[in-house]
Amino acid sequence: MTTALFYLWQMSVRNRLVTRFKRLRQPKYLAGAIVGGLYFYFYFFRWMFLPHGSGHGPTPEASTPLDPTLRESIGALILFGIVLLAWIVPRKRAALAFTEAEIAFLFPAPISRSGLVHFKLLRSQASILFMAIFFALVSRGFRGDGRCLVFAAGWWIVLSTLNLHLLGASFVRTMLLDRGISHWMHRLFVIGLALAAFGAAAAWTVHSLPPLTDADLTGRSAIEQYLRQALVSGPLPYVLFPFRLVVRPYLAATGIAFLHALGPAALLLVAHYWWVIRSDVAFAEASLEASQKLAEKVAAVRAGNWQNANQQHKVKRPPFTLRPVGWPAVALLWKNLIAAGQGFTARLWIILLVSLTAMAVAMRGVLADGNWLAVAGMFTLAVGIWALLIGPQIVRQDFRQDLPQADVLKALPLRGWQVALGEILAPIVILTAIHWLLLTLAVVCLSLAQSLGKWNGLVWPIGIGTAMILPALNAISLLIPNAAVLLFPSWFQLGRDATQGIEATGQRLIFALGQFLAFAIALLPAALVFTLVLFAVKSFAGLALAVPAASAATAIVLAVEAGLGVLLLGWLFERFDVSAEQSP
Amino acid sequence: MIQVEALTKLYGDFVAVNQLTFSVQPGEVLGLVGPNGAGKTTTLRCLAGIIPPTRGTVRVGGYDLARDPIAAKKQLAFMTDEPRLFDYLTVGQHLNFVARIYQVVNWEEIATPLLEELEIADKRDKLPGELSRGMKQKLAIACGLLHSPRVIYFDEPLTGLDPLGIRRMKDSILKRARDGAAIILSSHLMHLVEQICSHILILKRGGKVIDGSIAEIRNRFSQESADNDLEEVFLRATAEPPPAPPVVTPPPPA
User: Fold this and answer.
1) Would you say domain B2-238 falls under CATH 3.40.50.300?
2) Which residues are CB-contacts of A271 (< 8 A; sequence separation ≥ 6)?
3) What are the residue ranges spanned by the domains of chain B?
4) What is the CA angle A564-A566-A569, rounded to 5?
């Protein structure tokens, strides 16, 4: 039976690779693979062709690396934290994430429970191996002396042990549930135990350490010294001992040290394997549920709906009452605003608030004069510029979301340009609202701060001018990716044949560059008009009037461009052949 | 009401639909049948304006679908075999959206009895993710019928419905036909076609094998036997010629 499962895994991997090689016959994948390959080569591998010792890859070690003991302690501490969270956070029963096909074929088959667990472990090895190599390259870079393999092996031990531990922990949680011990009871127990252990350890450590003084925080080496002392004092070395064993092979400085560290780590790995295989827990039902969720998630991702892949949809109140009569394309705006509402959760607002506060405080520390209003104004402006560049990639309630439903859109009694406008209106409205809000905040703060010297009088004119330009600018920046989706739908994460791997990386790089170029070209006429009007008006009315006047002219140029873009987008949508793109 | 002239759809060299010509009058229910890959769904998608035909014309309610797509599309509804719904709109919001697109002024007066007829009135505030497969199908049907279309296409309409739902769906299709709608129904279920279709069109490899009223087709294919079963008629109409008998080489003499 095990051989049949191994055959399934082996053939799946082989066929996936063959399919990916075969599709390189299509130019879009070949181009993506070439660009992606070049990117990976220059980022990771070019060092191997350079003279020995001339480079260490993308992230060479710091000139003054951390003390090995401290690094090991910190690594062990991080691993300990992950393991602790694995015991506290998850709420669900043990579930092995099988695909729906695997559930259909394997669960009714005469395969033992341990056979299924073995299959799952074997399958997870593919991703663990990939991650180990990737992490080794990212964390240490490629080295021609073969140490990269040692790092990858070290990462493999860490990830494999962690994978087995998470699985074992989920089995134990399920076992406790089956015995009537609820999630909250076991969480309270684990948290209580952890707090008690931490309290005792902290007390012991503090007792055995000299008290913290200002001198201990005077520089990196002093902080390192104190941390090293803290992590090797009291009971912490004993608590962190098993975790040190796991991370030690990765951190080994030499091949010999790696071999020395390998034995205990391998022993722990085997112990974990034995624990998982011996655990007698029913996971079939939860796995069934997990596989359905996995299938939904995969379908969402393959439909280009990355943002919604991890979230359960909730009923959202419509942004306004949609009357049955009126311009039909408004229905698309209404629909997409409801969709966008899924993303604006309480969690998002909390994260934003905390991040913005933290960044503002950090910026205050950077500026010596401590002018809060100026800091807030500049910070808001920086966030606004960032939102202008990144916003169109984040707010995707347009064709990028709806193209998998293209046949529904095609059947609507609307002209192509009406569908196109209706589709991009929601992100335009959302982004413009955000930008206007940030701009207002920035202008108010900067005008009150009066810290810009001779530019103080121009804060409001520039603010008003920017506000005029923003809607059309957002429209253009959204038209470009939407046109790209309609022109090259299969280059995006749409449909069943979603691209993965090195080709996908290359395709994204090509598109990022293409979109940047298209945006720059679209802005050229507007920039020209702005300059001409600015200098013309400035000569007789001054800069304070010239800026809004030039902005108004620019806004008109951009609006005309956006209007033409919508017509083009509509034409592309009318020509878009759903069957050609959806055929396998 | 539906007039199709020489409809052809090519995918590269592959002919999905080949020179299809037929018409459906108000009150008629045309059963579009054929083996897998015959081109039924492609035909329906061309007739709904979802995919452009390579050649030929389609007129819906007198409007040319290529030249006047808006007017033509306002007349029709297309119910796909797999309900295509928006994950983030509730049942009620789906209907509100459709009402605005088709400018259905009194949509709420139509929606309430429609949802009751389809037995999903109590799901008005639910998202598609909270509905069963059959309920999703019913919601897609409610969306399609909200604007009282004069032309309706059904692609495998009974998929996912329970027995009561199947009964109600059949009644609903017949009611719409009696009210003057022209209906095309694609299905593999020959007993469904037999029960509710007035005409059938049999497709094979994208081409028309035969079309006409059920009675005409029965008569044509049952001349040599007394068997009037539509399933048998379908099998005969789409049968491949019998394979040539294998050539048996006599063993050499010992």
Assistant:
1) yes
2) none
3) 2-238
4) 110
Residues A254 and A361 both lie in one domain: no
Nearest by CB to residue A338, choosing from B71, B89, B104, is: B89
B103 shares contact with chain A (CB less than 8 Å): yes
Q: Which of A253, A283, A313 is the last residue of a domain?
A: A283
| Mean per-residue pLDDT pooled into runs of 10, chain A (584 residues) | 75 82 78 83 66 50 62 86 81 67 74 79 85 79 68 90 88 78 75 79 72 66 74 75 89 84 91 86 62 61 51 76 90 92 77 76 58 81 87 87 86 93 94 93 86 79 93 92 82 52 77 84 92 92 90 95 94 81 43
Inside any domain, residue A415: yes
Termini Cα distance of chain B: 74
B151 forms beta bridges with B76, B182
Q: Is B10 on the interface with A (CB under 8 A)?
A: no
Contact B80 A335 (CB under 8 A): no
Does the residue A33 lie in any domain?
no
Are B73 and A412 an interchain contact pair (Cβ–Cβ within 8 Å)? yes
- The one-letter amino acid code at A488 reads F
- On whether any CB of chain A is under 8 Å from the CB of B102, the answer is yes
Range of the domain at A78: 64-283
Q: Is B123 on the interface with A (CB under 8 A)?
A: no
**CA separation (Å) from A531 to A40, A527, A546, B96, B147?**
41, 6, 10, 47, 52
Sheet holding B199-204, edge to edge: B76-79, B151-155, B182-186, B29-33, B199-204, B207-213
The total domain count for chain A is 2
- DSSP letter assigned to residue A396: -
Q: Are residues A273 and A395 in the same domain?
A: no
Q: Which two tokens stand for residue B212?
A: 């006409």
> Are the Cβ atoms of A412 and B78 closer than 8 angstroms?
no
Q: Which chain B residues are Cβ-neighbours of A414 within 8 angstroms?
A: 70, 101
Q: Which of B71, B88, B100 sits opposite A322 (nearest CB)?
A: B100
Complex ipTM value: 0.81
Q: Are residues A370 and A265 in the same domain?
A: no
A324 has a chain B CB within 8 A of its CB = yes
Inspect the interface and report whether the beta carbons of A413 and B74 lie closer than 8 Å.
yes
Domain boundary among the residues A262, A283, A304 is at A283
Q: Length of chain B, please?
A: 254
A314 domain-assigned? no
Q: How far is CA A250 from CA A45, A80, A191, A236, A264, in A?
A: 20, 16, 30, 21, 13
